[in-house]
Amino acid sequence: MPSPLSCARLTAWTVAAVALQILGLSLFVFGFFPVKPTLRGFSGLESYRMPTCNSTSDGKETELPPDQLRSLYKEISKIPPSYDRLILMVIDGLPAEFVLGRDEKPPNKAMIEAMPYMQSLLTNGKATAYHAKAAPPTVTMPRLKAMVSGAIGGFLDVALNFNTQAFLDDNLLDQFYRIGWKLVMLGDETWIKLFPKLFTRQDGVSSFYVKDTVGVDLNVSRHLDVELAAEDWDFLILHYLGLDHVGHIGGRQSILMAPKLKEMDEVIKMIHVRNILYQGNATSRTLLVVVSDHGMTDGGNHGGSSYEETDSLLLFIGLGSKGSNYSPYAHKAFQVDIAPTLALLFGVPIPKNNIGVMLPKMLDSLTDEQKLRALELNAWQLLRLLQAHLPGLLCGDLRCGGDGQSLQINGSTGRIKEKFCHLFSKATAAHNMWQLRQGSSFTSNTDDLRIAVESYYDFLRSASEWLSRRATDKPINLLLSGIAIMLISCFLLLILLFFLLREVYFTQTESCSQLKESRRSCHIDEIFVFIGIIIHVLSFTSSSMVEEEQYTWHFLTSTLHLLFLFSAIQLLFKRQASKRREEELTPHQSCISVASSIPMINNENYKISSVLVVLFCARVLRGWHQGGVNWVHLPDVSKLLVQAGSFIIKVLHIISLLIVMMPSLFALSIVRLKRGFVFLVSLSHFVSGFLVLLHIIENQSDNMVPINQSAASIAQIFYINIGSTVMLTVLASPWVVPIPCQETHMMTQTSLNCHSTNMRSDSLLLGFQDCTYMIGTTYVASWCLLQLLLQQPINAIPVLLIFLQLLACMIYFSIDGSHHKQCVEVASIYFLGMAGHFGLGNSNSLATIDVAGAFIGISSYSTVLSGILMFMITYASPMLSFLSMVMYISMKNTRYFSLPNKSKWSCMLEMKLAFPCLLPLVLNSVVLTAFTIILLLMRNHLFVWSVFSPKYLYICAATVCVYIGVFIIATTGFYTSIVLSFRTKRLKPEVHNFLFKFQ
Amino acid sequence: MGKIQISASKAFALHFLCAAALAAGYCLARDVYALNLISDPAQTLRLLLVFEGPVVIGIYSWIRRDPDSCSYLKAVGRGLLGLPIGASINAFGAIVLGAPIGIKYLTKTIYWSFLMSLFTFVPASCVFGKSRMDWQRILAHSKPMEGVDYMISLPAHGAVIGAWLGAWPMPLDWERPWQEWPICVTYGSVAGYLVGMLASSVFILILRRQDPVKVD
């Protein structure tokens, strides 16, 4: 790139970099969070019919009463349920290796001794055991979901229903509930979170206290005597957490492990003896299924995808005695196979999104015909799911199985379709063949049966494998290319910033040698911004630093402003020193000594006090919400206020409204535009403030009524009013601003520090400053009022504090111009915005999003509108910082940009807008790119789903916020300058000529 | 100006005394009173203060800038006066950066800020007194630094930067007792102070080498 950056070139490159970033980000997001098509609703009667080409489920799913539904299922499935009652015993974190050994070898002796009863069941063939491979993330809740639904969920469907943790997809428990089963749950309360309404009786245990290894299990076992004797339940879930906790404390080799295994063995023995061997009446047959949700590493952790973690146990007890002619330690299965197996054994439809396959050993108790029927049902269900992934599968040609080779199919999906089609029709053909033979001759033809079963399994296994790969595989090429593109974009932005810095500051230091000295002494804040960003990025590698990010931001922001304070004090001393030197020596000419007079020292005091305001507000903000994860319980101001009662909160809300109104009205009143226009805008602000006040009072009077009609209409009027005010101001103010060519002596507060010498050449600049000042003030004031309406009442003071911080910061920067580099100032405003984001009580977990505020003033439910409001509430503070940057560019004296030989307005645009637009993009891009790489590296980390992925969603939303903010800044500046230059050209041609000559 | 030029060996000895006082205080706390920073931060900090305070004030009053116009006792008095002022500045900084406010932490914060004051503000106040010129020089770097300036500013900067870095492990969820305020911050500042003293000795040594004319 050539060194002089023109405005157009800078814009073009920036836009290109942003476009690249969006492209890379979307590639990565689609690769990392695969959005797989899931089927809504619950399997019903249609699952007993062959899927057709356009398998739109006929919506006339009649709501049958449970008993009728149960008998109907029994009738049309043609498989009578093998069992009547089910006990599902989940032992959290038990690796299958403990029970079944590894690599077809029996487990070690200590383990066998620890679980004598289970081993005796296995060797006598009374139990069928599997190594059930769990899919990552190997943490409890997703694993439970996989077990009961047979599906492997993505992250986004967890993230997107952040309102409720309840499990809404089709699953076994709901299917059982539909046929009138009574469900009882004892143990981990995750089950209650997933299925809040299903259980007849429940006793949840929190898995929060990891140090407790005894109480969590006693709490389950103490109910066993009663529950095992009770006749009223059909499905009993026992979830033992103790073993997982033992692992977390001491790892696999913990001394507590053997006693815990012994305890589990006792429970199994008790259930087996009481409910399976000696059943009260012969009609009720009970099946005991012992499963573990995941394994554990040697150190006792889990979450990743190593063999030790994914190797979980699946044990069926109560299948009736079979010959023990096989090794009990050999079978392998998948955790998702539990769902279809249990569904078929108990005569309910297989859950819709299941990707599991009926376990072969479990077929042995069925007759030949039932076996094939069960496989057929499983195949139909998978076929339906495949159709969702591959639209058009099975359409039209059932010939494809026979001579499909002749078909011209393009692409890999075509080949996959063809393959499944082929496998399925082969299986159906074998099934039909067997039925024909069975019908015609009564000779038992085991060969046909074997072929049919095998071909069904061929289809089922390949379909299941393909589906599970689709669900879990992260296409590494896609991820890497996304990251590469983001890196390119990040580097592009950094290079742009570098060129801009070089251009601006090299010309500056050449022109003014004295500034060089001040630049050197202020260097520490630039270095700090750089180091702070690096530390911030590095802190992302630690999950707890991500959880507690608010401390990082507050620490960095406050340190930066302490440095500002320090440099202001330094400057004070330096000014005094140079003054004294001047008195001693002969006065010599330099930039600083001209400026350093008595009022400047006064200015230093203003500077110091405004930084003190920023620091004070920051400290209060930090204490307002005890955010994060680990220290949420500690006392903070907001908790104190909630205890103090709603009246005080309301009063504070009103007070903060008044305090916000005052500076904004004052700021508007000093604008040098046409009086009438300013009056109009101020009036409309006043009306907005009054509406917010009304809304606060309205909410106070009837707190009980959930939907308050009058409050909603007040909010709507407010939206209209504030929207029209902002639009009016933005569109009209460049047209009404006086173009101050002749009246240079009239200086406004907006351009406090204009040197009067080169005033004349800057008429356009002055107009621009007045105009953006007006627009910026309107933006900031309107946004604050909007936030006072939308945010929770407890957040009113923090909104005020952020507002004051930004104002103080801008005053600090506008007094006595060029003492910090502009990039440091923009960075500090950006930092304030981010620190304020956490000061408003946000965190990096999805739980802190304020959902309630998203419905203020919305009369009917609309996802888009409430989504926008939710975004506005969550990103209130960063957005405010961007809006205040419009105000900042108007107050900032940027005269030291000396860029000759350029067309006027584009040159002005560059010097005004380059840093405020480019720097947030650069900062955000660095964070985004770095965190993307960290997320890729951490994809097998224990907390990837609970900590890193939510943070990634926040970062993506913050990126959107930066784009919007920068867009607003750029368009406002662009529009204003175009209108102004148009007016200058048209109205004052002679002045324009003069100016042109001058420049 | 430059009435006292300090030799490298003297600077090193003085720094060594300061470090030794800290070490003695820590050892006494550990061995005699069976205290350490983790078990009882307030008491330990107080003990460190008792040991470090007289040594720092004594040493830096001895190398005061204006030995002719100002007696030794007066310099000590300046140091004692500077102690609470520096403590309040340090406490302000700590609280702004997020140190907890509350009765529980009050004594710890006070002792910590007094210790920080010994590291940062007291030496300067002992040496400079109310000489505006010297303060300007050390704060605004408007004139080249001298040996004593290094002795004052490098350990002070080291202590502040060390304390700043020492605060970083606090939000981590390791559940270690030393993550409490002000334990790891104290560790950080002491480490930074020691590094700063080492650096200042080295700097003075280099200064001597470059500028042998100035040796008295």
UniProtKB/TrEMBL annotation, chain A:
Bilayer disposition of the protein: Multi-pass membrane protein
UniProt record, GO biological process: GPI anchor biosynthetic process
Source organism, top-level taxon: Eukaryota
CDD domains referenced in this protein's UniProt entry, alphabetically: GPI_EPT_2
UniProt pathway annotation: Glycolipid biosynthesis; glycosylphosphatidylinositol-anchor biosynthesis
Pfam families the UniProt entry points to: Phosphodiest, PIGO_PIGG
Primary localisation category: endoplasmic reticulum
InterPro entries documented for this protein: Alkaline_phosphatase_core_sf, Phosphodiest/P_Trfase, PIG-G_N, PIGG/GPI7, PIGG/GPI7_C
Protein name: GPI ethanolamine phosphate transferase 2 isoform X1
Keywords, ordered alphabetically: Endoplasmic reticulum, Glycoprotein, GPI-anchor biosynthesis, Membrane, Transferase, Transmembrane, Transmembrane helix
Subcellular location as annotated: Endoplasmic reticulum membrane
GO cellular component, one term: endoplasmic reticulum membrane
Molecular function per GO: CP2 mannose-ethanolamine phosphotransferase activity
Membrane-spanning parts: 12-33, 478-501, 522-541, 553-573, 606-624, 644-670, 677-697, 717-737, 771-790, 796-815, 827-856, 868-891, 912-937, 952-980
Record domain GPI ethanolamine phosphate transferase 2 C-terminal: where: 525-973
Natural source organism: Phoenix dactylifera
Source species taxonomy: Eukaryota, Viridiplantae, Streptophyta, Embryophyta, Tracheophyta
Family per similarity comment: Belongs to the PIGG/PIGN/PIGO family. PIGG subfamily.
TrEMBL record, chain B:
Coiled-coil intervals: none
Keywords attached to this entry: Endoplasmic reticulum, GPI-anchor biosynthesis, Membrane, Signal, Transmembrane, Transmembrane helix
Localization: Endoplasmic reticulum membrane
Topology with respect to the bilayer: Multi-pass membrane protein
Principal location: endoplasmic reticulum
GO cellular component, one term: endoplasmic reticulum membrane
Signal peptide: 1-29
Protein's pathway: Glycolipid biosynthesis; glycosylphosphatidylinositol-anchor biosynthesis
Pfam families: PIG-F
Membrane-spanning residues: 45-63, 75-103, 109-129, 150-170, 190-207
One biological process term in Gene Ontology: GPI anchor biosynthetic process
Keyword Zinc: no
Lineage: superkingdom: Eukaryota
Protein name in UniProt: Phosphatidylinositol-glycan biosynthesis class F protein
